[in-house]
Amino acid sequence: MLINRRLAAWMGKYFVPLRPLPLPQIARMDADTLEHIIKAGNQGEAPARYSLHTYMQHILFDLDGTLSDPMVGICSAVQHALRHFGIEVADIRTLTPFIGPPLEQSFRELYGLAPSQMAEAHQAYNEYYLARGMYENVPYDGMAALLARLRQAGKHLYVATSKPEPLARRILEHFGLIDYFDFVGGDTPDWQRSAKEQVIRHVLASCPATESHQSRSRREKQEQ
Prior knowledge:
With about 220 residues, this protein is α/β, with parallel strands linked by helices. It contains 9 helices and 6 strands. The chain has helices at about 10-15, 30-40, 70-85, 105-110, 120-130, 145-150, 165-175, 195-205, 210-224, and strands at about 1-5, 60, 70, 140, 155-165, 185. Helix 7 (about 165-175) links the parallel strand 5 and strand 6 (about 185). Helix 3 packs across helix 5 (about 120-130).
């Protein structure tokens, strides 16, 4: 299950179907929804086979916009990169669409940068982000406590982010969250794994503990 704040409504459609949730069909929800469902499952308010307490053992978290609020750091770095190309953006809040998708995609779709400009755009972005922006991330209130409760409940936690994997680890280490996760998966340093689907496959393939769940999911799908 991938925890992603922006797709909580999507999760709501599929959490209580007439059949178990298959993995690796990815269910997405925000932290508040997750906590509510865990409590419901633990208190017997939801069918046991649908509750996270008994069924969901492997949980994938996005980083930006899920574990932490990256607005100031990311948007300031984007502002710096755009200025490099002569594009001035006065209000960094207008750059929030850059949060989440791969940088290359956003530079191309939102500001029309050409493929030949992407390496230069990444370099300008990193000039700000690596020196300052990554430390302007702010973990969401209560997130550390939620992660601790999930670990105490025996859940396996993973990060699946479009950020380069070494950078994601540095951010999680800086904020003291790294030890909650079994594995941190992200893009490669040369941006060869930026699509979220690729990152999720990388995380699943890198974690032997998920193999039995994937096998069970394939079996359940065949039986449907």
